[in-house]
Amino acid sequence: MKHYYDEALEEIWMLLEREENTIDRVQACLERTGGAASLQDLLTAKYITLDKEKVRFTGLGEEHARNIIRRHRLAERLLADVLGMTEVEGQACKMEHILSEEATDRICTLLGHPQECPHGLSIPAGSCCRQPKETLDSLIITVDRLRIGEEARIAYIQTGSDERLHKLVSFGLHPGAVIRLHQRFPAVVIRTEETQLALEEEIAREIHVRRKAEA
Fold it and tell me: Is residue 1 predicted with pLDDT exceeding 70?
């Protein structure tokens, strides 16, 4: 029964992200999703309300949907960044139903509290993201947190600027590239292959790397 509601709430969350949460759009989407709860089922369970031709979450529904989306998108990051898988959707769909809250927070911490899934969609923050001190060493960290002389492999680059991303890639900074931190102050200086680059701290925090010892 839990999965029956999970799939429907997940679909509605994604429609809300795209601002496509009209009653007709949601109804059509749920009808195409095999095994998902219907609009009336969700109303009866008090997961949603209808407001001026729009579908809205109740507090209960939003919390439930947020947790599903968080588990799914963190599972995608784990599969892509740690296991190096390219097809992650199907496995993440299975994992979202079985991960406990504790396991989800540990995965989040291990990955360095990523804010986006591999498809660029937002990952809802959890309680672990708001803790002042991590309780588990992160496997995925940002470049500015490397030790001087430490090598790491780029896992992903999280930036809101396409121009910046293209520029970094042109310098050889792309997922899979191995870098070494040469200097942290006054600028972050890294070396990749035969190239040495100086980065602003803001940019260094956008480059997420997997520690080489764990790669």
Answer: no
72 and 119 share one domain? yes
The answer to whether residues 8 and 46 belong to one domain is yes
State pLDDT tens for residues 184-200. Answer: 888 899 998 878 999 99
Quote the CA–CA distance of 179 and 189 in Å, as a whole number: 10
In three-state secondary structure terms, 142 is strand
- Please count the structural domains in the chain: 3
Question: Which among 210, 171, 176, 211 is positioned nearest to 191, based on CA atoms?
Answer: 171
Distance from C-alpha of 60 to C-alpha of 29, rounded to nearest angstrom? 21
pTM of the model: 0.69
Residues 119 and 180 in one domain: no
For residue range 40-86, list pLDDT tens digits in order: 999 999 999 998 899 999 999 999 999 999 999 999 998 987 777 88
How far is it, in rounded angstroms, from Cα 74 to Cα 96? 9
- CB 143, CB 181: distance < 8 Å: yes
